[in-house]
Amino acid sequence: MNEPGNGPSDSVVGAESIVVAGRHPAGPTVLSAPAKLTVSLRIVGVRPDGYHLIDAEMVSLDLADTVVLGPGEGMTLSFEPPASGQSGLSVGADADNLVAKALRLVGRQASVQLIKRIPAGAGLGGGSADAAAVLRWAGYSDLVGAAALGADVAFCLVNGRARVGGIGEEVTPLPPLERTFTLVIPPFGCSTVAVYRAWDRLGGPRGDNGNDLEPAALEVEPRLAEWRDALHAATGLRPRLAGSGSSWFVEGAFPGDGRLVISTAPR
Question: Does one domain contain both 33 and 97?
Fold first, then answer.
């Protein structure tokens, strides 16, 4: 399964190629960590180790977390809209945070201030974006090692618009497109692990709206349906689930109460 923050046994492939190591230099460094949107997602196979093979299109968004690195150690979290209004899966400031894992991967030490705007568990890649920002800062470019941290980290490391395959480590950049999307973000998250397990349990259904995980996500979290239906009623368009959920999106700008209008961001 494509579990965020976990990976196959060779999870540090490429780490030996990093030559910059040690402590953070004096003074803070401010990094932007753009969210990602999975525009389409097909599951094309399952490896013997249980990881799912995907064929997806992903784009970076103008919604971003901020990662501030400084001398010392430790991590603090603060939340700004829309993350502050989303009470889904929690984000911990501990050794399991993807930023902490990224620092260990590149052999760095730093104090970290995470300003979260990307809601957790919404399918927008917040943790992966934060980890990728640290990898870029450290000059790390190995996509296999990045994907071992989490399935979306490799794309977030490349950014822009890309076709993503394998378990997330195959990232082929695509020409940029200026696009606008309207999202609804429910006040609960979806566990990626639970959704993939449900997809397996249901026999690997194919989604009829460009995302094979939609049937499984609705099985795991039936409340998703009311948020999908509300976005449909407001826009007249059929919403698509963002990755494993919980966000729903349509293309175009439809501002209004409870809806978030976002645009693609260049690489």
Answer: yes
Which among 65, 130, 152, 212 is annotated as catalytic? 152
Instruction: Give the distance from CA 84 to its chain's centroid.
Output: 17
The predicted-structure confidence for 23-51, as pLDDT tens digits, reads as follows: 455 579 999 999 999 999 999 999 999 99
Vertex 225, ends 116 and 123: CA angle to 5°? 30
- Catalytic residue check, 65: no
- Give the pair of three-digit tokens for residue 89: 């899966």
Q: Considering its fold, how many domains does the chain have in total?
A: 2
Q: Which two tokens stand for residue 173?
A: 């950049």
Let me know if residue 10 belongs to a domain.
Answer: no
For residue 172, count other CB atoms closer than 10 A to its CB. 9
Please indicate, yes or no, whether residues 194 and 85 belong to a single structural domain of this protein. Answer: no
Looking at the structure, do residues 233 and 161 belong to the same domain, yes or no? no
Q: Catalytic: which of 36, 65, 101, 116?
A: 36
Residues spanned by the domain of 149: 15-173
Give the tokens for residue 153.
Answer: 């980290």
What is the pTM assigned to this prediction? 0.86
Residues 128 and 240 in one domain: no
Phi, psi of 10 (to 5 degrees): -90, 50
Is 36 an annotated catalytic residue?
yes
Q: Which residues pair with 173 in a beta bridge?
A: 162
